[in-house]
Amino acid sequence: WGSSVLFSISTYNKIWTNVQKDLDTQLQTEREQFLQAESDHVKAFRILAAFYINYLQIFHHLEEAHSHIIHQQKKAAIRQVLDGVIGRILELKKEMVGLEISEFHYIDNVIEDLKLLPQDTEIPIPKYFIKENLEGLQLREKTLDEILLSAGLETEKPVEAMAFEDAIKTIQVAERARQGRRRALYMKQIYLKEQRKRQTKVQEQAGPNPDDAATLIQKVWRGYIQRKKTEKMREEEMIFLGMPSPLLSPVSNAPQGEVEESHEEEFIKNKLKETEGLDIRETLQDQIGQCFIECRHIIGKFPDYPAKEEGGSMSIFSQKTPEEPPEAVGGINEFCKFSPFISLFWITVVWQNRDEGRDFFQDHDPELIKAEKREEVEEEIRVQVDELMQQKVKNLKLAVDGEMSGKKKRGKKGEKVRAANCEMMLLAHRTIDSLYRELAEEGILIKVKPVNLSDYVGEYSYLGTTLCQVDVEPMPSLADIRQLVALYGILPLGSQTAHEKAPLVKALLLAGPSGVGKKMLVHAICTETGANLFNLSPSNIAAKYPGKSGLQMMLHMVLKVAKQMQPSVMWIGDTEKPFYKTVPKAEEQINPKRLEKMLPKLLKALRAEDRVLLVGTSSRPFDAKIKPFCKVYQKIILIPRPDYASRFVLWKHIITQHGGEITKLLNISCLAKLSDGFTQGRIVQAVQAVLSELRLLQMARKPLRTDEFLTPLASLEPVYIEEEETFKAWYTKTPLGRARIKAAAQREKAARGKKK
To answer: Taking Cα atoms as reference points, which of 709, 706, 707 lies closest to residue 663?
Structure first.
């Protein structure tokens, strides 16, 4: 076991090392491309697409290494690089969208050149999104269940009562079995007792045998040796699995050395304060004092001391990092701008070429802890030095320059307004728990249905590039939809670093015909990231918190809980209703336009550090006023009906999921062809109508046939061509759609000019 554990550690360390090499190669390639001007649209996009796919491969391997390496300091280093790669992928996606003026990209030719499969371009969901906060999520889910149960919004599953006669029979069977086991045990004990008496009598008559004594000693000794080996194997197995083991010593009792590391971190930090604190303080004071004296010689007076908000004395010594790009590089840099995530890629340099020897426990490295804690100690001392030096500089300015230090500048008006809005007087005395409970009891904070993004089944489009080459606009596949939901919804919500530094997406719109899985994708975003789900649909908030003040109160409560317990998703179903051109008479009572003026303000209150996403779903987006609608939703994903390849996979998946068996009598290809125009929801309804409990019982002697599914399918409404064209026409009126039409017109005009 010990050798297998070390082999596993070395395997994932090797994966990590290889990934770092791939990352270095990718960065070198990007630098070379930056120095080359590329004006051709198609070539520039292929370069970006190749970068994007390479980062996806790095993402896959990094996630694998991060999931399996147990060394906590290594995991922390890989985690930072992983977040940096996520951010770089999001940046490249933005550049690709800006270049192609489309959310969907057809890069099967690039995938073929790189000798990859379409499955290799699927975006993995890092396991740490859920794993690192698993206990908190389980506790939150349990609390929500209790709140909903006490509020009567959810009922316990009824327990089926057993008939009186069946209960008696069950008790009788169990009691007879118990008596039989006791009787058998009693008879066995009598038999063994008689055997021992017989053996003792024979031994007394024959006398002691030296061979038997030697055998007995060997037996005891071999048993002792084997038990020691077994204990050691168990100990090694527990270490490999990262689980606490009673066989381990107190030093290694905590999983993965977390407890020991935390105690040692505190000890090292206190030791550094005692041994190096005074030297650090004096060094900082000398550096700051010297800097101010030199500044006075240059400008003739002492400058103002940097405020705490500006970083204090740290801002004095800040310089450009080597990673910052030179100005006016040109070339493809026009498409790939400098990324703030590149600096995160060098975190793992400290682990390269490190000889770990027989570091079997893989817990922590005290030297790395000391270096990390030295920075913390220096930062704490710097704050104290800033307070002291600020007063010294003030006295120097008064004594030498004869002036008082400048007053603090007033904050911007927008900051005052934002601060005033954040501190609602009516919510100041409320705790987050009480607000959470109230929102749950009002039905605004709802329970998330456990569904993963991989459950959104759909196949990759293999003809995208071919159709584009003949000037035919291909329809996006369901695999493309999965990828966009992961990029704009799941990855930013799961990674704090990526959300803060990557291109910020505050609102996401999922539009498409009824039954294409819009609500399922909303729940998948929440499931994959452990996010809260707030239902702000017009039908759900009708008659709740009436009036303008009530609406403001509700939204402030939602924002406060969403930010405090992030990540969070605010979902608005039928999101076209707040932007109705004309409110139908049947919906006037629910006042669907309540949120129209509040949504822009709601988004304005969200900052980069707030992992909160507004997701709207709409089956009729063309009923909304296009300008304010698109002003709220900066990212719009138009979900089409499934194509043939996706329908083929869907039929197999749904039939198997509902307990059906696929045989030669069931022609899946025929079903996929005949269900052209039907959405995923309609296919599910048809399968459920056929696979009843009675039909499942008949499955063994009566296999499923193709024609069984045709009748229920024919009774459902498909997506007609007119409805599909309406969605396409609406999308051309969105900002991205208009920009795409304009770019196409410009390219056509340029092509005509070349011909002339």
So the answer is: 706
| Three-class SS state of 497 | helix
Residue with tokens 């990231």: 529
Chain segment 397-448, per-residue pLDDT in tens? 777 656 544 444 444 444 444 444 444 455 666 788 889 999 999 999 999 9
On average, the pLDDT of the chain sits at: 80
State which H helix or E strand residue 446 sits in. Answer: strand 445-446
Model confidence, pTM = 0.72
Spatial neighbors of 720 by CB under 8 A, at least 6 apart, are 677
CATH number, domain of 657, equals 1.10.8
Q: Are residues 630 and 648 in the same domain?
A: no
Q: How far is Cα 684 from Cα 695, in angstroms, rounded to an integer?
A: 16
Domain count, the chain: 4
Q: How many angstroms separate the Cα of 461 from the Cα of each of 121, 263, 479, 482, 674? A: 12, 54, 8, 13, 19
- The DSSP bridge pattern shows strands 532-535 and 445-446 to be antiparallel
Task: Name residue 286's amino acid.
Answer: D
* Inter-helix orientation angle 432-441/547-564, to 10°: 120
What are the distances in angstroms from CA 106 to CA 333, 480, 683?
23, 9, 27
Q: Which residues in 337-358 are b (16+ Cβ under 10 Å) and which e?
A: eebebbebbbbbeebeeeeeee
Task: Answer whether residue 119 is part of any domain.
Answer: yes
User: How far apart are alpha carbons 683 and 671 in whole angstroms?
Assistant: 10
What's the sign of the alpha-carbon dihedral 463, 467, 469, 470?
positive
Same domain membership, residue 518 and residue 592: yes
Angstrom distance (rounded) from CA 748 to CA 490: 38
Instruction: Decide: residue 243, CB within 10 A, 0-12 exposed, 13-18 middle, 19+ buried.
Output: exposed
CA distance 201 to 19: 73
User: Is the peptide bond prior to 578 cis by the omega test (within 30 degrees of 0)?
Assistant: no
Residue 743 is assigned to a structural domain of this protein:
no
User: Residue 260: in which H helix or E strand, if any?
Assistant: helix 258-299
